[in-house]
């Protein structure tokens, strides 16, 4: 290669001339490979482009047989080229033919070339092709040559992304840029949504790639880095963390990475190859994203995410773009695409225009999932690299029921989903017709169906579903969407509004269930090895009694002259309940002493979600006014299986013998003490699971509003007595598989119970 960075600068300037020339796409590619080969003193330079079917096609070459262009293809992962595409990493070899991945293609005539250097053509972390140089003699390629080839590959990535090579694709061999993609993630909120993509944080478009003055570009980069550092320092120093919705510890991490010398040196080096400052940031960000997508260690993935976020900040500083998207400009039928979002950010968008939500992160129990379900927005999480794969305006289908996303779907796929949406609409109409029908089983057992809520936007669902009340009001959501700690008066106003809109129907308010994964943006985050088992919920309330007292005071004032139900989460022992009850009674006595009208009645209940409480059932059913089963946490703790961990989340089934015996012991203890009991976890909103719980003896459930119709349709077709007999036999038999789901599904089929 000619000299240091000066050689790459000359190459980039010549590349720009070729890019600007009025020539055909094939001629442009042919000239580019000649230029690259000449500059890097290589006898071969070849460009492979990723096709729609996932294979790589030879699009241009200097040095190999020209007849092989558009004829030679590599399957995904095949040969050295396929290996580079799969790993998204450069590969330099002095003896390529002895590499285990080498694949000989006689039509290319490459058998005479020993040395090989290939780099992925990356954009936004996604592989678009592979750029290769080769030499006859055994040769060790320098870091400088690898860097130059990577920089050149970025230029080609932008050319491919702009559609400059589409006309070269043969029929049925379209370039992978606009290929349909079927993404499989996890369901966050049920429903089917069809629309067009809107990026929550749009990708910054880089229009100027090649630098006129590299020294000036280094200065621009340094200035942007200094500005980014100053803005982060200012945010931390003035404590205005909640205003931008980021946790203080996240900003501290940003500050640390903003001073990371390795990351900054990498960007400076790329600028010196001849790219503009923003193009250099984009290059390094794309490399980071590619590594992030192939990283399994959660800690390293998070650190790479931090660098990705910092790069976005730098890009916006360099090109003068503000963060975020204009909420008022949201088009009709919008599918919102984001890496991650807080609940407050989602609430900023116009619900009337939102048809779906796609996230790279976020599980079924995340805050954003709860809000999406409340708003009735179909949502899917854990779609890998969604923000890079999806361009603004792309057609997107969100299948919240199956946890799948269709990106740029083919017409037949789109039509199939339109049919699915119409079928779903017909089912919803059938469920609406059940609204006026009583929730009574086929053999006359009355069942109480209530909804879960957490925001005022949930309240219209009471009338829409004819629910009997709110069995779980998650008070923490008000805290999570607020920019500051809600005052006692603000809390009281919300609780009073909820009771007013409930119009006499019972409402069960759960005290703050924060901590663990529910970190408030304005509270200090405590690092814990196992946050789900750590300082959270009632444990925080008992250790910080002023916080619990303020909320209880707001609840009691809001319930003045009304029936009031308060439920305490994460109770592990009877003693914890008694201590919390003492705080509640003191607040009640204080308000009465101050002349406030007390609630007409006050019931204090316990959320059963910690297995230790199962061994104090006789005591807790005597002490508490009611119980509510939080099946999400109860099953997680019962099986010691993190519900957010893909490797173990589905390993154990709540319809197994062990789990059902535990659930039966709770309902039997409650029945013996005449203690009311409700199920408010996810199990209570799934028709098959709810059917089984009815068979165990549960008679009250709280669920998402969307689950009311399917569950009511199920129970009205169910003979609860027959199911109870069958369940007794299954749980007593103790033979064969301990997972009873297949047998219970067979029961539903036998007796035509829709589950």
Automatic annotation (TrEMBL):
Q: Which GO terms describe its biological process?
A: phosphoenolpyruvate-dependent sugar phosphotransferase system
Coiled-coil spans in chain: none
Please tell me whether the keyword Repressor is annotated for this protein: no
What EC number(s) would the UniProt record show? Answer: 2.7.3.9
One GO molecular function term of this record is: phosphoenolpyruvate-protein phosphotransferase activity
Return the Gene3D superfamilies for the record.
Answer: 3.30.450.40, Phosphoenolpyruvate-binding domains, Phosphohistidine domain, PtsI, HPr-binding domain
Localized where? Cytoplasm
GO CC terms for this protein? Answer: cytoplasm
What are the GAF domain coordinates in residue numbering?
24-170
Catalysed reactions, as listed in the record: L-histidyl-[protein] + phosphoenolpyruvate = N(pros)-phospho-L-histidyl-[protein] + pyruvate
List the Pfam families: GAF, PEP-utilisers_N, PEP-utilizers, PEP-utilizers_C
**Which keywords belong to this entry?**
Cytoplasm, Kinase, Magnesium, Metal-binding, Phosphotransferase system, Sugar transport, Transferase, Transport
Predominant location: cytoplasm
Q: Which cofactor does it need?
A: Mg(2+)
Family, per entry:
Belongs to the PEP-utilizing enzyme family.
The name on file for this protein is phosphoenolpyruvate--protein phosphotransferase
Species of the source: Bosea vaviloviae
């Amino acid at each position: 290669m000619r000299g240091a960075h000066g050689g790459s600068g000359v190459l980039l300037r010549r590349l720009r001339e070729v890019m600007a020339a009025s020539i055909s796409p094939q001629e442009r590619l042919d000239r580019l490979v000649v230029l690259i080969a000449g500059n890097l003193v290589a006898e071969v330079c070849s460009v492979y482009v990723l096709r729609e079917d996932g294979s790589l096609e030879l699009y241009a070459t200097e040095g190999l047989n020209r007849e092989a262009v558009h004829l030679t293809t590599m399957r995904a992962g095949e040969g050295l080229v396929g290996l580079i595409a799969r790993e998204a990493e450069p590969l330099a070899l002095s003896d390529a033919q002895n590499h285990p991945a080498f694949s000989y293609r006689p039509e290319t005539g490459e058998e005479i070339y020993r040395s090989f250097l290939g780099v992925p053509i990356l954009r936004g972390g996604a592989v678009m092709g592979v750029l290769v140089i080769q030499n006859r003699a055994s040769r060790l390629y320098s870091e400088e040559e690898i860097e130059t080839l990577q920089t050149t590959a970025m230029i080609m990535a932008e050319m491919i992304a702009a559609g400059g090579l589409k006309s070269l694709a043969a029929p049925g061999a379209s370039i992978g840029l606009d290929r349909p993609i079927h993404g499989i993630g996890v369901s966050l909120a049920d429903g089917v949504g069809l629309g067009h993509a809107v990026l929550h944080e749009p990708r910054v478009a880089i229009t100027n790639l090649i630098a006129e003055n590299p020294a000036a570009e280094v200065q621009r980069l340094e200035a942007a880095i200094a500005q980014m550092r100053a803005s982060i320092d200012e945010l931390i120093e003035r404590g205005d963390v909640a205003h931008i919705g980021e946790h203080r510890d996240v900003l501290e991490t940003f500050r640390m990475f903003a001073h990371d010398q390795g990351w900054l040196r990498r960007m400076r080096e790329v600028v010196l190859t001849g790219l503009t400052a923003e193009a250099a940031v984009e290059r390094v960000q794309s490399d980071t994203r590619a590594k992030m997508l192939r990283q399994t260690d959660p800690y390293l993935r998070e650190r790479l995410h931090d660098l990705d976020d910092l790069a976005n900040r730098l890009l916006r500083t360099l090109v003068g773009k503000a963060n975020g998207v204009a909420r008022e400009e949201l088009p009709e039928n919008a599918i919102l695409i984001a890496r991650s979002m807080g609940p407050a950010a989602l609430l900023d968008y116009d619900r009337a225009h939102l048809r779906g939500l796609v996230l790279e992160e976020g599980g079924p129990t995340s805050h954003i999932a709860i809000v999406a379900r409340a708003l009735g927005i179909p949502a899917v999480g854990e779609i890998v690299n969604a923000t890079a794969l999806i361009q603004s305006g792309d057609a997107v289908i969100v299948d919240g029921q199956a946890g799948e996303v269709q990106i740029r779907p083919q017409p037949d796929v789109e039509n199939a989903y339109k049919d699915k949406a119409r079928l779903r609409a017909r089912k919803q109409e059938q469920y609406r017709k059940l609204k006026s029908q009583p929730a009574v089983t086929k053999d006359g057992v009355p069942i109480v169906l209530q909804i879960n809520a957490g925001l005022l936007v949930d309240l219209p669902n009471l009338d829409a579903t004819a629910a009997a009340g709110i069995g779980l009001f998650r008070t923490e959501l008000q805290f999570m969407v607020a920019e500051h700690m809600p005052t006692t008066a603000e809390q009281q106003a919300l609780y009073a509004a909820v009771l007013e809109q409930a119009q006499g129907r019972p409402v069960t308010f759960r005290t703050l269930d924060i901590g663990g994964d529910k970190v408030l943006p304005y509270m200090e985050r405590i690092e814990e090895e196992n946050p789900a088992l750590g300082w959270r919920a009632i444990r925080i309330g008992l250790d910080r009694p002023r916080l619990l007292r303020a909320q209880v005071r707001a609840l009691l004032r809001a319930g003045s002259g009304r029936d009031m139900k308060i439920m305490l989460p994460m109770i592990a022992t009877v003693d914890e309940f008694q201590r919390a009850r003492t705080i509640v009674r003191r607040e009640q006595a204080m308000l009465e002493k101050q002349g406030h009208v007390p609630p007409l009645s006050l019931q204090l209940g316990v959320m059963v979600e910690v297995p230790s409480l199962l061994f104090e059932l006789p005591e807790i059913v005597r002490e508490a006014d009611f119980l509510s089963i939080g099946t999400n946490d109860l099953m997680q703790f019962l099986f010691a299986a993190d519900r957010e961990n893909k490797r173990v989340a589905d390993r154990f089934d709540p319809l197994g013998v062990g789990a059902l015996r535990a659930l039966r012991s709770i309902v039997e203890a409650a029945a013996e003490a005449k203690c009311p009991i409700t199920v408010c976890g996810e199990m209570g909103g799934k028709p098959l699971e709810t059917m089984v719980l009815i068979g165990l003896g549960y008679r009250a459930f709280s669920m998402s509003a969307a689950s009311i119709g399917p569950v009511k349709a199920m129970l009205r077709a169910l003979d609860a007595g027959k199911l109870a007999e069958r369940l007794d036999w299954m749980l007593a038999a103790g033979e064969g598989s301990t997972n009873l789901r297949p047998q219970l599904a067979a029961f539903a089929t036998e007796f035509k119970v829709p589950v």
